[in-house]
Write a structure and sequence with these properties.
Blueprint: E1 7-11, H1 21-30, E2 40-46, E3 59-65, H2 69-74, E4 76-80, H3 84-99
Antiparallel strand pairs: 1-4, 2-3, 3-4
Length: 100
C-alpha cells in the first residue's frame, strides 16, 4: 500500500492575504458592523488549450479553505491538492508570498 499526503494544515495562513484589499474594503463597507473573511479559495491548474475542439487538457485543483470559524480566526488553513508535485509548488509560492 502506498500513501501520499495531499492535504496539510498551514498555521498562520490567512486566505484574505491573497484577495485584493480594495475588494475586501468594499465588502466591509457594504456589510457595516460585520467581519468579512474569505474562507475558500480554489485554483485550477490546467494544460493550455491550443485547440478548443480538441479539449483534452488535464485539470488539477488546489484548494485553500478554513473548515471552522476557529480556523478562520486563527488563520489556520487547509491546503488541499491533487498531487505531491502541486503540493510542493503551492507550498513554495505561499512561503515566498508570506515572506514578501
Amino acid at each position: 500500500m502506498k500513501w501520499s499526503t495531499l492535504q496539510s494544515k498551514a498555521y498562520g495562513l490567512n486566505i484574505n492575504d491573497f484577495i485584493s484589499e480594495k475588494f475586501l474594503d468594499k465588502l466591509r463597507n457594504e456589510f457595516k458592523d460585520k467581519d468579512v473573511d474569505v474562507i475558500t479559495l480554489q485554483i485550477t491548474v490546467r494544460d493550455k488549450i491550443r485547440d478548443p475542439k480538441n479539449d483534452d487538457a488535464k485539470v488539477e485543483i488546489i484548494s485553500l479553505s478554513n473548515s471552522t470559524i476557529e480556523d478562520t480566526l486563527l488563520h489556520n488553513t487547509i491546503v488541499d491538492v491533487t498531487s505531491d508535485e502541486n503540493f510542493e509548488k503551492i507550498k513554495k509560492v505561499i512561503d515566498n508570498f508570506k515572506i514578501n
